[in-house]
């Protein structure tokens, strides 16, 4: 670039904002399709067993009902489970709805009712009678601890849990100060506000699938293979996604069933999964973790042991980087980690914002707080005493690490220096006040799969950028517009970005915080290519202007060029293959989160009155949308800390929550002040555009910071999430 | 549809100033009527149980959850949906403030938030930031855009009254 970045780095208002505030952004269930049928799922009421019979006579005779599909009358699909693999899937056999009579989890779809209206399908679904042969199920993680195992197969793309270093057992037993405790985290559901939905437009030549997904390309490939749609063109459109948080990483039950029904009936179908059935689409694995920290009297770590047992389903070994940061966050030479799974009769767990890290770091960061009190060292001072400039688990430097600045700037903004160390020592009115902090870390990586982007000059002198990547609310439209505008020296008004369509240039899944770095780099490369092309064409055509590229890319010069040359050829496509990062550096984003809670002593009601999140995430393309990402992730962290619990009745093997009345997510009244700071971090190694991604990091450290603040306020160490009123009151009484 | 037409009832609503008629089953909610029949999909469905506020519309100026209302029960009412608020060239001050404060991410809860905020402002009860937060708590946002939402509402509430739609 021959001029400094002008538009990237600025808080450009969200490009898709005006559409969204006017209700004009279209989501999966909102496409008008002629002759549309509607479908509704009948879900299993047992957790394990077989379907003996399905009586659908009443449902079929219900006015408006077109068909009732079950495993007995569904159309053919492949019997081989490996053909249903998707890039985000863990090792094992992917679940296929209506495959056979087996029931694997409560809430599993066992029939699909199709009607000419939504009401007909929904009401008739209640008339389908299913009888089961029940088998003994197990949904209680605590009861399965003795059967926990180390997964023999690692998930594609997941870094292994770091190998042990030194002798952690001995170092722990000999350490002058020891803390050891067991922590548990509840299963959580993603619950994006948009219901999972698919609208299938069934045609003889083309099948257009409007789907709520984080990867239109994976869904396209999945459908083609699974339903043998090779003779038809399959196009998956997800222009707008009403949140997903990981639940849309894999092809969901909704798209599977909607396409299945469309194929069976040769009709267009819409399936919207109601909120109660969304509990059965996937969950953040609940966990039981034990952390043992050994230290000298000043809090210098001598041993770190961290064992986690996480839930998975019978059919798959769901895995995430739960312990991948426990060896590298602090300096310590004796580390031993064990990441194990235990099989339950549930749907497979599914990545949820900061998968693994948000769970594992909760335990580690609470244990660090316990160590701070065991050694009588300020929690922040303790972190600084154990600061590491190298990733000791891989024995290599970080590509950049401004965590020290996060600590300093966050503490300053929060006023940490005014904290009194002793628990129960701060008060305001009749409320106890607690200040707690925690460190967060997430990997900064580019997608392991290549990404493509295309940019072309339009006849009106604007540039059109296309990519199959989605924008799930993260701001992808906006940052790609900024990147393109800078590369092409154009104003943002002259850039049109089209996303979320499998017919557009290939991009991998939107997840793991790698979209900005990966798809952004592809867009930048394509724009640079086009710019070169334009400049050389202009030269050939004798358009010289003042010789500056800015002038040659101006609307006037481009209009001249378009008159003289065929604009169809003025396009460029670029592919970005995982940046040659090699094994020389570890890429990571970091955060330091400071939390204030106020607790009504009598009622044990906790309010999170203030959060300061200091984040080091490389180059920030758009501070406004990045800030929103961190705030949003923090709000989810408040939910994790205080409310969210997809509790199961183990007698029934069924999730007891069916709605927002029994699965609480933070509401407006639960959120007070959240401040976000970005520590400056320049990194030319992590990605071609210096970006690390901000999607996950905001979620990592909030729950432990709140748990630690609750300890500081009350002197009660609650090691089980969520920290609900009853837990707090019980531990007090 | 024919098999069901014997129980269908006529309903007339004025939606965003335009009179609309439909013949629907009595069990059809106002939300489903708007979305499925009139293709006014700016009004969202997030729970269908009155718990999330994504379906908020204004009925005779009052904010309601349209998923909790049977369409026939509002026969003759004036309904304002997000499609009737602001224009592409001139956004409603709240819409404009939502964009400026980045009070949205995925945008799914946003039409409901804006309709709810218009209702809130015309109710005139919420005065402070805390009262806004409380009175907007029927509108969930899983993207967690609450701070921007309150910033936007506070700003518009404080602005000198100008004639606003609806
Ligand atoms: S859809 Fe009406 S309140 Fe949620
Ligand atoms: S903006 Fe996504 S739910 Fe509110």
From TrEMBL, chain A:
Query: Which Pfam family is one of this chain's hits?
Result: MoCoBD_2
Query: Where in this chain does the entry annotate a coiled-coil region?
Result: none
- What are the Aldehyde oxidase/xanthine dehydrogenase a/b hammerhead domain coordinates in residue numbering? 22-136
List the molecular function annotations (GO) for this entry.
Answer: iron ion binding; oxidoreductase activity
Task: Name the chain's protein.
Answer: Aldehyde oxidase
- Which source organism does the UniProt entry give? Phyllobacterium brassicacearum
């Amino acid at each position: 670039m021959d001029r400094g970045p002008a538009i990237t780095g600025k808080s450009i208002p969200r490009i898709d904002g005006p559409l969204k505030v006017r209700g004009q952004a279209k989501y999966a269930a909102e496409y008008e399709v002629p002759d549309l049928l509607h479908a509704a799922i009948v879900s299993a009421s047992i957790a394990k067993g077989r379907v003996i019979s399905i009586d659908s006579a009443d449902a079929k005779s219900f006015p408006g009902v077109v068909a009732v599909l079950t495993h007995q009358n569904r159309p053919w699909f492949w019997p081989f489970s490996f053909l249903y693999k998707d890039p985000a899937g863990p090792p094992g056999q992917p679940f296929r709805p209506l495959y056979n009579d087996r029931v694997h989890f409560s809430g599993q779809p066992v029939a699909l009712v199709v009607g000419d209206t939504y009401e007909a399908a929904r009401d008739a679904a209640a008339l389908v009678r299913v009888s089961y042969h029940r088998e003994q199920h197990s949904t209680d993680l605590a009861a399965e601890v003795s059967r926990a195992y180390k997964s023999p197969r690692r998930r594609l793309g997941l870094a292994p849990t770091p190998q042990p270093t030194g002798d952690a057992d001995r170092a722990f037993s000999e350490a002058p100060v020891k803390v050891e405790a067991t922590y548990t985290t509840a299963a959580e559901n993603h619950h994006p506000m948009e219901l999972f939905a698919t609208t299938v437009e069934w045609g003889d030549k083309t099948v257009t699938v409007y789907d709520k997904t984080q990867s239109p390309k994976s869904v396209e490939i999945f459908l083609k293979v699974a339903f043998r749609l090779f003779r038809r063109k399959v196009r998956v459109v997800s222009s707008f996604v009403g949140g997903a948080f990981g639940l849309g990483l894999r092809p969901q039950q909704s798209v599977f069933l909607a396409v299945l029904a469309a194929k069976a009936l040769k009709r267009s179908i819409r399936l919207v999964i109601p909120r109660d059935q969304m509990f059965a689409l996937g969950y953040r694995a609940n966990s039981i973790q034990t952390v043992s920290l050994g230290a000298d009297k000043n809090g210098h770590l001598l041993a770190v042991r961290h064992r986690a047992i996480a839930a998975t389903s019978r059919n798959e070994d769901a895995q995430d980087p739960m312990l991948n940061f426990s060896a590298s966050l602090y300096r310590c030479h004796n580390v031993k980690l064990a990441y194990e799974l235990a099989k339950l009769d549930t749907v497979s767990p599914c990545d949820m914002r900061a998968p693994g890290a948000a769970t594992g770091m909760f335990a580690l960061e609470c244990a660090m707080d316990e160590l701070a009190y065991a050694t009588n060292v300020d929690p922040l001072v303790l972190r600084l005493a154990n600061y590491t400039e190298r990733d000791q688990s891989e024995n290599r430097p970080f590509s950049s690490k401004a965590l020290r600045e996060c600590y300093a700037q966050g503490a300053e903004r929060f006023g940490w220096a005014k904290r009194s160390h002793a628990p129960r020592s701060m008060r305001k009115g009749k409320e106890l006040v607690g200040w707690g902090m925690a460190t967060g870390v997430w990997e900064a990586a580019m997608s392991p799969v290549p990404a493509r982007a295309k940019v072309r000059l339009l006849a009106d002198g604007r540039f059109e950028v296309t990519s199959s990547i989605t924008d799930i609310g993260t701001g992808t439209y906006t940052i790609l517009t900024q990147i393109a505008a800078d590369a092409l020296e154009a104003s943002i008004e002259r850039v049109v970005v089209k996303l979320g369509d499998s017919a557009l240039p290939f991009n991998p899944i939107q997840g793991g915080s790698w979209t900005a770095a990966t798809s952004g780099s592809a867009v930048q490369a394509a724009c640079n290519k086009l710019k070169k092309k334009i400049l050389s064409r202009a030269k050939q055509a004798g358009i010289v202007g003042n010789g500056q590229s800015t002038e040659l890319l101006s609307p006037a010069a481009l209009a001249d060029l378009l008159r003289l040359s065929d604009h169809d050829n003025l396009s460029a496509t670029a592919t970005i293959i995982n940046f040659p990062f090699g094994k020389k550096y570890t890429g990571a984003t970091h955060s330091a989160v400071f939390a204030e809670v106020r607790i009504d002593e009598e009622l044990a009601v906790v309010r999170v009155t203030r959060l300061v999140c200091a984040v080091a995430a490389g180059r920030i393309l758009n501070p406004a949308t990045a800030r929103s990402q961190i705030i949003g992730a923090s709000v989810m962290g408040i939910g994790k800390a205080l409310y969210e619990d997809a509790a199961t009745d183990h007698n029934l093997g069924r999730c007891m929550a069916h709605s927002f009345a029994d699965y609480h997510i933070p509401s407006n009244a639960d959120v007070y002040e959240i401040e976000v700071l970005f520590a400056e971090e320049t990194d030319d190694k992590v990605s071609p555009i210096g970006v690390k991604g901000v999607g996950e990091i905001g979620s990592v450290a909030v729950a432990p910071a709140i748990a630690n603040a609750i300890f500081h306020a009350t002197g009660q160490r609650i090691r089980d999430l969520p920290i609900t009123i009853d837990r707090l009151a019980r531990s007090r009484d | 549809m024919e098999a069901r037409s014997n129980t269908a009832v006529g309903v007339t609503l004025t939606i965003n100033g335009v009179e609309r008629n439909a013949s629907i089953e009595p069990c059809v909610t106002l939300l489903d009527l708007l979305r499925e029949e009139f293709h006014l999909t700016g009004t969202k469905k997030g729970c269908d149980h009155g718990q999330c506020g994504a379906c908020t519309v204004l009925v005779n100026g009052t904010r309601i959850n349209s998923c909790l209302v049977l369409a026939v029960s509002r026969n003759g009412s004036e309904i304002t949906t997000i499609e009737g608020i602001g224009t592409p060239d001139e956004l409603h001050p709240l819409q404009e403030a939502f964009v400026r404060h980045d009070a949205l991410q995925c945008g799914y809860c946003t039409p409901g938030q804006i309709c709810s905020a218009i209702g809130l402002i015309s109710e005139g009860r919420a005065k402070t930031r805390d009262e806004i937060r409380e009175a907007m708590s029927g509108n969930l946002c899983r993207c967690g855009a609450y701070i921007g939402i309150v910033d936007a509402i506070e700003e518009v509430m404080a602005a000198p009254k100008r004639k606003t739609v609806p």
